[in-house]
Write a structure and sequence with these properties.
It contains 4 helices and 33 strands. By secondary structure, the protein is mostly beta strands. It folds into 3 domains: 2-131; 169-335 and 342-358, no CATH class; 360-504, membrane protein fhac: a member of the omp85/tpsb transporter family (Porin), CATH 2.40.160.50. A hairpin with a 7-residue loop joins strand 19 (208-218) and strand 20 (226-236).
C-alpha cells in the first residue's frame, strides 16, 4: 500500500510541477531516436525508458521522463522533471529552468549550467531544494558518457542476478575452456516490460553444453518490481567475492591456479525482484540437481606445467529444493574512490534434499569507503557468514588465499561460521605526484565450526584468526597492480602477486 501511494504521489507531483498553461502533449511510447531533436510544438513525455538530449540539440519545451533516466548534453529551454530515474547532465548541458528528480538523483559534470531551482526527493537523500548552485552539483559515481554511434547506455539498475552477465570466454580447472557464442536479449532495447534472455555456451573440458534461459515481466516505475522464471545448466560457486571471473581465467591459464571451487547445477528457479533507488532485492524458489564435475585433463600446460590443480569438489549428486534471497543496499551507485557504504545480505534455506541434511546458510558483506582527503581513500570490506544445521562440505565457509587473506593457502580454514576483514589505504596518483597509485593493506579472517565457540567469544576468534599485511603499486588507470604481502602470526611467509583489479 505504501509503495502504491508513493507511486501515485510521484505521478501527481510530476504533473503539478509542470506549467499551468495548456499545451499539446506528445507521448513517446517507443524508443526515441537520440539524434532527433525535440519537437517544438508540445511537451515531450517519455514513459519507462531513457531519453537523450544530444550535444547541439535544443529543446524548446519542458522535458518529462517517467520510469527512466534523462541524459542531457544539449540545451533545454524549459524545466526537466524525472520520476523514478536520474537526471544526468554533461559538461555541455544548459537548462534554462527548474530540474526536478523524484525517486532519483541529479548528477552533473563540471561545466553544466542550471538556471533555475534544483529539487531532489529520494530515499537516500530525502527532499533537497537549492537554487542556482553554479556549474556543478555532484558527480555520478558511475560515469556516464554519450556515444553518438550507439544510443544505448549501460544499465545502471540491473537487478541482482535475475540473468547473470555471461563472459564470452572463460577458462577454469573444472570446465576447461568455456565459449559462449549465444548471449541474446530481447526487450526492445530496454523499453519493454517483458524480457527474454538466452545464453548458451560449450564446456570443452566436460564436452557438454551449458546455459540459461530467463523470462522476466516488470511492473511499475523503473521496471520494478518484476517476476521471473529461469531454466539453466551452469556451474555455481561461493567464491565469486575473491576476484572477477576474467581475472581468475588468466590465473588458470598463465599461473595454473584456480581460486574458485565449483559444482554443477541443472534445474530452474522462479521468483520476484524489486528495485527502488539504492535498494535491490530478490527471492526465488530453486529446484536443482547438483553434481560434481568430472576431472578433466584438457587443460593447457604452457606455464607452470608442474603445478597440480585441486581436485573437483566431491558431492553426492541429488535433487535439492531451496529458497534463496538477496538484498543489496547502496551498491548501485557505489564507487571505491568515493565515500560510501554498501551492504549485501544473502541467504538460502533448503526445503528438501536427496543426499543432504537441511541447512540454512547466511552471509553479509559490508563495504565502506572514506575519502580521508583529496586523493587519499580508505577502502574496506567486512564479511560474516553463519549457518543453521550442518553445512555440507562444498558449502562450508573458507578463508585464506587471493581475495581473502593474502600470503596464506587457499581456504586454509573452513567451517560453518566465518569472519573476514580487508582494509586498504590508497594513495592516488595525484597525491603521489606520479603515474601510479600506492596502497597499504591488511587482511584478517577466521573460519570455524559452530561447536567450537560462538560469535560472542571474540577473544577465541581473534586468537585463531589468520592475518597479513602488504603493500601494492598500480597504474593510474587501475588496470594492474603488484602486491607484496607478509603473513603474520609466526607463519613467516610472503608472496608476490600480479593483479588486474583491486584487492577487493
Amino acid at each position: 500500500m505504501r509503495n502504491t501511494l508513493t507511486t501515485v504521489f510521484s505521478i501527481v507531483a510530476m504533473f503539478q510541477l509542470s506549467t499551468a498553461q495548456e499545451v499539446d502533449t506528445t507521448v513517446a511510447m517507443e524508443s526515441l531516436d537520440p539524434l532527433q531533436e525535440f519537437e517544438e510544438t508540445g511537451i515531450e513525455i517519455k514513459f519507462f525508458g531513457d531519453y537523450y538530449v544530444r550535444a547541439g540539440q535544443i529543446s524548446k519545451e519542458n522535458v518529462r521522463v517517467l520510469g527512466g533516466d534523462l541524459f542531457v548534453a544539449g540545451t533545454v529551454d524549459g524545466q526537466i522533471i524525472v520520476v523514478g530515474g536520474d537526471a544526468c547532465l554533461e559538461s555541455t548541458a544548459v537548462v534554462n529552468g527548474r530540474v526536478v528528480a523524484i525517486g532519483g538523483s541529479i548528477f552533473r559534470k563540471e561545466g553544466s549550467i542550471i538556471n533555475g531551482e534544483i529539487v531532489q526527493a529520494n530515499i537516500r537523500e530525502g527532499i533537497n531544494l537549492s537554487r542556482n548552485e553554479g556549474p556543478q552539483s555532484k558527480k555520478r559515481s558511475d560515469t556516464f558518457e554519450f556515444d553518438d554511434d550507439s544510443p544505448d547506455y549501460e544499465e545502471k539498475h540491473k537487478l541482482l542476478s535475475i540473468h547473470p552477465d555471461v563472459s564470452g570466454f572463460i577458462y577454469n580447472k573444472d570446465e576447461g575452456f568455456v565459449w559462449t557464442p549465444f548471449d541474446w536479449r530481447f526487450d526492445r532495447d530496454g523499453t519493454s516490460s517483458f524480457k527474454i534472455y538466452f545464453s548458451l555456451g560449450y564446456r570443452f573440458g566436460q564436452k557438454q553444453w551449458a546455459g540459461r534461459t530467463t523470462i522476466e515481466k516488470s511492473f511499475g516505475i523503473n521496471n520494478g518490481p518484476s517476476l521471473f522464471f529461469s531454466a539453466f545448466r551452469e556451474s555455481r560457486t561461493d567464491d565469486a567475492f575473491r576476484l572477477p571471473v576474467s581475472e581468475n581465467s588468466l590465473a588458470v591459464l598463465f599461473a595454473r591456479q584456480d581460486f574458485y571451487d565449483r559444482w554443477n547445477e541443472k534445474g530452474y528457479e522462479a521468483g520476484a525482484a524489486f528495485h527502488v533507488d539504492n535498494l535491490e532485492s530478490k527471492v526465488a524458489y530453486r529446484s536443482v540437481y547438483t553434481s560434481s564435475f568430472k576431472p578433466t585433463n584438457r587443460l593447457a600446460q604452457w606455464f607452470h606445467g608442474e603445478r597440480e590443480f585441486r581436485s573437483p569438489l566431491q558431492l553426492l549428486g541429488g535433487n535439492v529444493s531451496s529458497v534463496a534471497g538477496t538484498v543489496s543496499l547502496g551498491a548501485v551507485h557505489k564507487s571505491f574512490l568515493a565515500t560510501g557504504l554498501s551492504i549485501i545480505l544473502e541467504g538460502e534455506t533448503t526445503l528438501a534434499a536427496d543426499s543432504l541434511e537441511k541447512f540454512d546458510r547466511l552471509s553479509a558483506t559490508a563495504s565502506f569507503n572514506w575519502e580521508l582527503s583529496p586523493n587519499i581513500v580508505f577502502h574496506s570490506r567486512t564479511m560474516v557468514g553463519n549457518s543453521k544445521g550442518e553445512l555440507p562440505q562444498f558449502r562450508a565457509f573458507g578463508v585464506g588465499g587471493l581475495g581473502s587473506v593474502s600470503a596464506h593457502p587457499y581456504k586454509v580454514q573452513t567451517g560453518n561460521r566465518m569472519m573476514q576483514m580487508n582494509t586498504e589505504l590508497i594513495l592516488l596518483p595525484d597525491f603521489m605526484s606520479g603515474d601510479h597509485y600506492f596502497s597499504l593493506f591488511f587482511d584478517a579472517g577466521h573460519a570455524w565450526d559452530k561447536s567450537d565457540y560462538s560469535f560472542s567469544d571474540f577473544s577465541s576468534i581473534t586468537d585463531s584468526a589468520i592475518s597479513a599485511v602488504g603493500i601494492g603499486i598500480g597504474n593510474e588507470d587501475l588496470d594492474w597492480r603488484i602486491n607484496i604481502a607478509w603473513a603474520l602470526g609466526g607463519r613467516n611467509t610472503w608472496e608476490t602477486t600480479f593483479r588486474f583489479n583491486l584487492n577487493f
